[in-house]
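Lab notebook, bench 4. Still working through the backlog of constructs that have no structural model yet. Next entry is a single chain of 265 residues. Request: give me the structure tokens for it.
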Amino acid sequence: MGRWRMLLIGTLLGLLVLPHLWTFAQGGAVKHWSQARWDSAGLAPSPAQTEEAVVQVYGARAWGWKGVFAVHCWLAMKPAGASQYERYEVVGWGVGRGSSAVRRDMRTVDGYWAGNPPELLLDRRGPEAAAMIEPLRAAIAAYPYQSAYRTWPGPNSNSFIAYLGRAVPELGLALPPTAVGKDYLPAGSLLARTPSGTGYQLSLFGLVGLSLGRVEGLELNLLGLTLGIDPLGAALKLPSIGRIGFGQTAAAGVAELNPDGRRPS
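Model written out:
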């Protein structure tokens, strides 16, 4: 029975991943990242029309075969009255030649990532957002892997955003299960707060782990892939597919926006 059960689970996961593999096989992705879309998706509110402070987190499917399993996440923020955003993320390009893994304003604040549309994962506004900006800047400066990058199991772009969430728990950050690398803890730590700050997690170098939090629910990390259940959001979390459910996560904090990026009055 055990062998048949594993075969069934493997078949179901294969069926879930197959649509992504088919897309790449049929040329759904462009041949080279330089030919892909990087322009704005129109999700960030215009600074000219938004006086208040804004803090946002975005995620988009990664480039190439990595996009079958993982997203790339980044942070965007704007102090009250500022005329432009600051965008922060981690990438591996050039790190081996001495470049910093942490990049600022490398791309459009809400742009497509190598042709993949971004998803707004978190949106904080007003005084709440303003109070987070300096702590976030301090956490960015203190990130311990400024000169290191490893696609799997980390530290990578998602390890960076998860680190910011733990450093500034007021964010209430809920990262998707496809944020591979989010469970890689700094300095080989075995125990830490979850990125939302609402629970705790055990992790062995981002390869095997378990987390339990009000926002995350229960998550099992196997080789960087997440399986889990979110009781409050009535959702399942699956590798490659992501979150499947009927409700928002408890920490989504994502406002319903008008087409011009402004919140409804």
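Notes after review: The two ends are 58 Å apart (CA to CA). Confidence is low (pLDDT under 50) at residues 22-27, 254-265. Flag for follow-up if needed.
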